[in-house]
Structure prediction request, 227 residues.
Amino acid sequence: QVQLQESGPGLVKPSETLSLTCTVSGDSISSSDWSWIRQPPGKGLEWVADLYSSGTTYYNPSLQSRVSISVDTSKNQLSLKLRSVTAAETAMYYCARWIGGPAGWFDPWGQGTLVTVSS
Amino acid sequence: EIVLTQSPATLSVSPGETATLSCRASLSVSTHLAWYQQKPGQAPRLLIFDTSSRASGVPARFSGSGSETDFTLTISSLQSEDFAVYYCQHYNNWPVYTFGQGTKLEIK
Prediction:
């Protein structure tokens, strides 16, 4: 079955760039659609970005000017970059497969990687 | 932006009983609504999509209903493993999606 595993630095300084990777197994990253979702400690879920198999990307409007999502097909990996981070962006970051095209849902999810933004 | 409001914030129910969780949308989302379960320290897991379709491997005691702005997740014959936080999510305003703030289902 499809499995996703996020990885990242754990700690990022304010104003710097957060870079995360999601390694996918059991599915070709170029044949499905993928997403990033984040969750601050003790809080709810926030959709961050989508990357469709067509190469089209979509971003949460509140983050659009600072975020980018991409794939490395040779490694079957999804990546996320978020520039100029603040402490409020301390969160668990999840990658997930997006199912259903324009009207779909997230399934499955990776276990997540915790990113702390602090100096 | 469509806002999803879940109620109650916390629901206390005894094992074996039925839990009813609500999700209300600020605008119609048709039947474009999903439900997820999140246990402590774990990632969310898809339970229900398209309002009432169970995801693969989800027990039949989980059921979803509703349309437009009012949705319900019903869990019958609660098992110990069902106590968790539940989130609804809409996908009617592609490509922007939002989640509800969650309902914590706890053991009474």
Remarks:
- Chain A touches chain B at residues 44-47, 50, 58, 60-61, 94, 99-100, 102-112 (CB under 8 Å).
- The longest strand of chain A covers residues 91-99.
